[in-house]
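Step 1: inspect the first sequence and its tokens.
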Amino acid sequence: MSRSGSEHEVIGRRAFVRRVARAAAIAASPYGLSCAREPVRASGPNLLLIMADDLGFADLGIYGRRDYTTPVLDGLAREGVRLTQAYSAAPVCSPTRVALMTGRYPARLEVGLYEPLTTHPTGLAANLPTLSRMLKDAGYATALIGKWHLGTLPAFHPHRHGFDEFFGHLGPAIDYVSHINTENLEHDLYDGTREVHIEGYATDLFTQRALDWLRRPRSAPFFLSLQYNAPHWPWQAPGDPPYPDSLRWKGGGSATTYAGMVRSMDEGVARILDALRERGLERDTLVIFTSDNGGELYSDMGPFRQSKLTLWEGGIRVGAFARWPGVIPADTISDQVATTMDWTATLLRAGGASWPTDFPLDGIDLMPQLRGSAPAVPRDVYWRTFQRGRYKALRSGDWKYLVTDEGEYLFDLAGDPGETTDRKAAEAAEFDRLEAAFAEWERTVLEPIALDPARA
């Protein structure tokens, strides 16, 4: 439904006032860059977070894929706990990454309202508390390797958020071979703040840099955020040439090409895990694997409906698992409803890192459920998009309230994970409860930002 110009003006004025107030509060916070801290020696485990890009729920063998194999990631899942009800915080890249870095719903921060964040003067403000900064302050050595997608300007660089080291691309996607940014058509591969021209397939380059970083001697534990761009388009497997025509980046491809992209990531993870074993770090390292949202053209979403960019289950339900030998029991399954912000809270707690009370987390520490020492916790989880599609969703227990451009729905995910039967009429009281709960939550977050037609 379109809004009139006057309605957009009112929304814009309200949003501006709220953002100025929030910016002032953050600027006054003691967690900005100017605050000096005493060095700390961390005593927690090493932390390795591996995030795939646009990996469908059933794109790994252990979740159901059958036309290619992913033996390493399947094995990693079996060595720990596999989640069956894990979600991304958004159905698209940037908002999910905002949630990971801040531990908060994307809609609480202006940068999280862009879907996705494109190459323009917007990014994750450096005076916000972030996962990497808090772990660094707790004594961790920190690195981000792979995709950033939270601002291309120097003010938003990963180094400004507590990462000691960065190697990867700043924008949304790159040609895997030429490393050209698919949005602004400029070269986009950086070592720190320095642009570098290195030959190689992007997934392999990210794996190799992670290996080099892991093999360095260090006295402190580490936090490595390995953000593969695979298997996000362009559809290029190892050995393929660069795309000759940038306008065709989203086109072409094949199931065979996609299989090669996923297998390359699987093989890269094999090398990473081997490096941990070689250094005797396997039992001292918490490894988490997940995806930033659901898949696209060649993905398998399993029993779930739709795909990336929607709030149907296929757009937000993701495969996720965690391994920590001796702490997380092997070959276990958890039905805990989990979302991206929970990984933030879990990593912070595992690393003994503090978090500012005036910037509360929306995620929960999942370690009790991952260890099997506590039952699944019933909870409510919210989503909202409004630029490429006006969607709202609330998962409350087994119920899901969903609003799309086509209508409003209520689904019982316990018996209908494919969202095929609308229960809105049959369960009117439940529908009304969730509708009211969503409206109450929406009053706590920022107003939508109107999409510039030039960026649509």
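Step 2: inspect the second sequence and its tokens, then contrast the two.
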Amino acid sequence: MTATLTTQTMNGKPVFAVPAKSVLNMKSGFRHKLLCDGPTFTAGSACVYSCQFCYVEDLMRKSPHMQGIDRPHEEVVVRREGANDALRKQLAHSNGKPRYPDPADNRVLYMSPLVDVAGNITLRDETIEACKLILELTHWHIRILSKSNLLPTIAEALAEHRHRMIYGVSTGTLDDDLAKSFEIGTALVSRRLASLHWLQDHGYRTFGMICPSLPQTDYAAYALYMREAIGADRCEHVWAEVMNVRGESMTRTVNALRAAGYGVDADRLFDVSTNQDAWEAYARATFEAHTPLYRPGQLRFLQYVTKATREWWAARVGAGAVLL
């Protein structure tokens, strides 16, 4: 499977296409993050955005989807050609009858583990069509996460199914300029949050995603600001996470912060990244600042654990720790 360069560009990046043999993963590891009940959908392998902390490059390093691409992962968009046709085949038999017809099968599907589903109008429209297929052929619910401000337009297009759609935007900071330094090409944090509030004001189901969060000088104040900013009282659940370290993501993020003039933040992140005890203290402080602010069962704090740290985190599963 070799990616083919198209004549299209998206968000200033060249677009490569690979045949969409499979876009639905029924046993995704994202189930362990509690973001879904197994199923995920993705129509791409490289995003229109270029977040410096992105883990996808590391995941896709040996993927056949990257064959024939001689550019860094963050500099290209890789789309799965015929994604929604492939989705229909995975959801329905050749005679058109659904493969998952049980009305009691209300599993939550997550969009998307690899790329942003609403990074521009074209992708938004593709996502709307994919959602319509899923809503037509299953009784599943759909959780959508984005760093764009286009989710309200998806919600309006699918308004008749509002009880089966759950929307969220992710951010680990409320500072537009700080976010722009390491989330390249995304919608401003302020616009993302405004779109989340619109969804909440209009009665749509929402969830919070506070990540990635940098080391702080005042964790309690940070957690409170973030809770208020996402309208947590109107979120079904709230996920939170510190920086997810994969491949060169930490180095890229530190360098991006420093290049944008955020030297103090860069130094603070570098310091915890080079000392395991400091990293663990940063993660625990972030978690403990969040826990008092949420009703029981609402917080889902994602934490990669080691043999040495597992016991501490396992004792706090009841407070919202999700061990990965």
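Step 3: confirm your contrast with the notes below.
The radius of gyration is 19 Å. The chain has two domains: 1-159, 207-324.
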